[in-house]
């Protein structure tokens, strides 16, 4: 379906007009073309009379209450009318007039409204009918910090506008673009918008940008804010709305050139908050207990429980199911459906949270209930229909970066007050709710900080620095960050990019770096891909990069750990985990991507399917950027060696050396690390390259492959310049290798010299010709340089 009826219509809308000629329902589409001037709708079009940037509340309400959908030309469905009634009750509706007035008069607007008041779903629609971006061939973007929110909100708004998802309303997340030519309202992760800015630095394709959940201060949101501020100065036509439920509004207003503030009072339904009288010793146990208590004693309504990470969540789900089953057998309560949610779960599994609660087992029996156990990805934006109870233990995993030792990790830390408020806001969306905080009220007031600490102050910035350089922002020190990152963190990012060849010694983006930024990957992965043709293995490295970009493919259910380990052992490669992943991918393809085969081998089919998809997308980027796709013949002895060398060319900064005492130390930073128990390596190679640093109670390195010191010295001489190394065993080993090499080279060249001289003498004897000493020494020099 196109933007039918607009005079500026594309081919799709022209198609719509042609169809209109024979269809009385579409009659309203026709006059548009005859209206004579661009950007205005014909008389019988539902949008007739709207002037971009000047619409009124009455006009907008009339369109919504009309009979025909202005986007599709179809009569509105019953479902549309049903949803419309609920939408009309939302608190933001009362502010529609004020909102329109503010956007008409200002370029920036800051909007703060309580959770559930209708910001994410309604404001973009108010703006859509006001901006009419379709007339200018543009779109409205609404950013979300998380993929799951972008996807689910887009679906909801598509329903609210009575259009098909991906047509007028779509979403875009990394490796998945669910939009089309007719998309006018696009929900997207903030990271995706930032990526788009690299090819469209003034964000030309958007007439308005809504930065939602700005309080989360994700890295991408912070960078976008700075960028959009610059773009807006050049594009007075661009409207920018910054929204959140829990925002330090003044700070945002000041940052956006003293933007006006619109506050939306009132929540749709009340949420009652309970605290524990005493601090809980074990928050996971307490959370499980609370969930089951709710199930036994509270009236109907689903539960959302916040925990910190995959393992904890899967474990809690298992316990809730087991204990729940016992209660159900005793007849104490109704059936339970327990659903995990975390970011590494594939999108389709994430969608399970929207499933209905199970029905009671007998009519009139105790109600069935859904319990969603989630990380903080369900904290903002999401409306999960049916959630009435929220359990908030007060913790989340947060990214922490230590630039001194270049280690980025997720650590369990207390959440902020703003986050607690967001969590409570997930209850009471579709009816009154309750929030159980598993900490004391005193702790809430005294111990939780007001706002979440911005991510830019606690993460590795290399991807972002590369993106900013690509966009053309060279002076990072004077870039207008809301909170500037620590200089050391910036330096580390510049240093990494310099070692990878993305920035030159002056900090300028190189041609190589510009290409690197095209890949939606960490710079190390991109470098590995781009260098792989040198090692004749880009096809294989493409598969490895794809496998590293998806959630873990190995399943290890607690009740079948031994079988799962045995299944994994079938794929194990003697040199380590990267090649094991490659074996898995090859086997998966050889089995025609069979899901049964995956199941039998304890492999996650969805992850492998995702890897296949990611590989295809990366392959296209390789083709576009002219990177050769090649392979070493499988029977060649260098097949695997070449792949390992290509790994080194990207990850030479992530290498550890085993010390005499059996500990591994990371090179240069000298951090003590252990090989993660998931590795297939059953020995301790002297040098290992790792994909990831995992900080729990101990430091682990995960996804590991054995490499050779010689490769490090040859492939990354700039990094393995031993004069920059701290004194350590690794340095001494490398020095020894270099000394041996020097000795060997000298020895070799001496031998060669002897040989040459002998040959020369022989020739002279036979030729009896005379060669000047000068020529002879030149020959030696030339030959030497070839050696
Ligand atoms: N998928 C859905 N199913 C049912 N109702 C929904 C759905 N999505 C939204 N709603 C309704 O619309 C209301 C507004 O949702 P919206 O996401 O716009 O709120 P919000 O102000 O952005 O909240 P938050 O600050 O939590 O992001 C919800 O409270 C809920 O009543
Ligand atoms: Mg929202």
TrEMBL record:
Its EC number is 3.6.4.13. Keywords: ATP-binding, Helicase, Hydrolase, Nucleotide-binding. It is an enzyme of class 3 (hydrolase). This is DEAH-box ATP-dependent RNA helicase prp43. It comes from Spiromyces aspiralis. The lineage of its organism: Eukaryota, Fungi, Fungi incertae sedis, Zoopagomycota, Kickxellomycotina. The gene is PRP43.
């Amino acid at each position: 379906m196109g933007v039918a009826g607009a005079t500026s219509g594309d081919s799709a809308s022209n198609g719509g007009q042609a169809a209109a000629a024979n269809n009385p329902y579409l009659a309203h589409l026709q006059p548009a073309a005859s209206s004579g001037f661009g950007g205005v709708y014909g008389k019988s079009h539902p949008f007739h009379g709207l002037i971009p940037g000047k619409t009124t509340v009455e006009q907008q309400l009339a369109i919504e209450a009309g009979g025909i959908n202005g986007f599709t030309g179809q009569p509105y469905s019953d479902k549309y009318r049903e949803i419309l009634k609920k939408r009309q009750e939302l608190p933001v509706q009362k502010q529609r007039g004020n909102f329109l007035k503010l956007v008409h008069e200002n370029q920036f607007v800051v909007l703060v409204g309580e959770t559930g008041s209708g910001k994410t779903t309604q404001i973009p629609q108010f703006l859509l009918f006001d901006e009419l971006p379709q007339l200018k061939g543009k779109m409205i973007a609404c950013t979300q910090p998380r993929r799951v929110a972008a996807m689910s909100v887009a679906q909801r708004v598509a329903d609210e506008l009575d259009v098909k998802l991906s047509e007028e309303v779509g979403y875009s997340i990394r490796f998945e673009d669910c939009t089309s030519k007719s998309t006018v309202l696009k929900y997207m992760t903030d990271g995706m918008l930032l990526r788009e800015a690299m090819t469209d630095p003034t964000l030309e394709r958007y007439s308005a940008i809504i930065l939602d959940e700005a309080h989360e201060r994700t890295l991408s949101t912070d960078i976008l804010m700075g960028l959009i501020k610059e773009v807006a100065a050049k594009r007075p036509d661009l409207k920018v709305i910054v929204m959140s439920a829990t925002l330090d509004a003044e700070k945002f207003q000041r940052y956006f050139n003293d933007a006006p503030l619109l506050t939306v009072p009132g929540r749709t339904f009340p949420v009652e908050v309970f605290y524990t009288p005493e601090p809980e010793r074990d928050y996971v146990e307490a959370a499980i207990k609370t969930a089951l208590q709710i199930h036994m004693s509270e009236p109907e309504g689903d539960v959302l429980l916040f925990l910190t990470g995959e393992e904890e969540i899967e474990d809690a789900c298992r316990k809730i199911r087991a204990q729940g089953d016992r209660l159900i057998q005793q007849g104490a309560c109704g059936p339970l459906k327990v659903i995990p949610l975390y970011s590494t779960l594939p999108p389709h599994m994430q969608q399970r949270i929207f499933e209905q609660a199970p029905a009671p087992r007998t009519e009139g029996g105790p109600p069935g209930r859904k319990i969603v156990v989630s990380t903080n990805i369900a904290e903002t934006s999401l409306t999960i229909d049916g959630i009435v109870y929220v359990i908030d233990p007060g913790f989340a995993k947060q990214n922490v970066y230590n630039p001194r030792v270049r280690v980025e990790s997720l650590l369990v830390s207390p959440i902020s007050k703003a986050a607690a408020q967001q969590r409570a806001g997930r209850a009471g969306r579709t009816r009154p709710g309750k929030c159980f905080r598993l900490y004391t009220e005193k702790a809430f007031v005294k111990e939780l900080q007001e706002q979440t600490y911005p991510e830019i102050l606690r993460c590795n910035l290399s991807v972002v620095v590369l993106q900013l350089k690509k966009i053309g922002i060279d002076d990072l020190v004077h870039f207008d960050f809301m909170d500037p990152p620590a200089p050391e963190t910036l330096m580390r990012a510049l240093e990494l990019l310099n070692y990878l060849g993305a920035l030159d010694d002056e900090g300028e983006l190189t041609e190589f770096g510009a290409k690197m930024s095209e890949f939606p990957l960490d710079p190390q992965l991109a470098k590995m891909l781009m260098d792989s043709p040198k090692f004749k293995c880009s096809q294989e490295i493409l598969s490895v990069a794809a496998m590293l970009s998806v959630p873990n493919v190995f399943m290890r259910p607690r009740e079948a750990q031994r079988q799962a380990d045995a299944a994994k052992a079938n794929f194990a490669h003697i040199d380590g985990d990267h090649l094991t992943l490659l074996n898995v991918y090859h086997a998966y393809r050889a089995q025609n991507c069979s899901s049964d085969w995956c199941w039998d081998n304890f492999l996650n089919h969805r992850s492998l399917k995702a890897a296949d998809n990611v590989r295809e997308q990366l392959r296209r980027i390789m083709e576009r950027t002219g990177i050769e796709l090649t392979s070493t013949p499988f029977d060649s002895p260098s097949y695997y060696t070449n792949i390992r060398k290509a790994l080194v060319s990207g990850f030479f900064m992530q290498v550890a050396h085993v010390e005499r005492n059996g500990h591994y130390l990371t090179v240069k930073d000298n951090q003590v690390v252990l090989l993660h128990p998931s590795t297939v390596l059953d020995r301790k190679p002297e040098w290992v390259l790792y994909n990831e640093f995992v900080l729990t109670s101990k430091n682990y390195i995960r996804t590991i492959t054995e490499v050779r010191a010689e490769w490090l010295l040859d492939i990354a001489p700039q990094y393995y310049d031993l004069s920059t190394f701290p004194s350590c065993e690794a340095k001494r080993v490398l020095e020894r290798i270099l000394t041996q090499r020097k000795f060997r080279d000298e020895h070799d060249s001496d031998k060669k010299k002897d040989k040459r001289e002998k040959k020369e003498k022989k020739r002279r004897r036979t030729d009896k010709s005379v060669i000047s000493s000068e020529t002879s020494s030149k020959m030696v020099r030339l030959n030497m340089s070839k050696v």
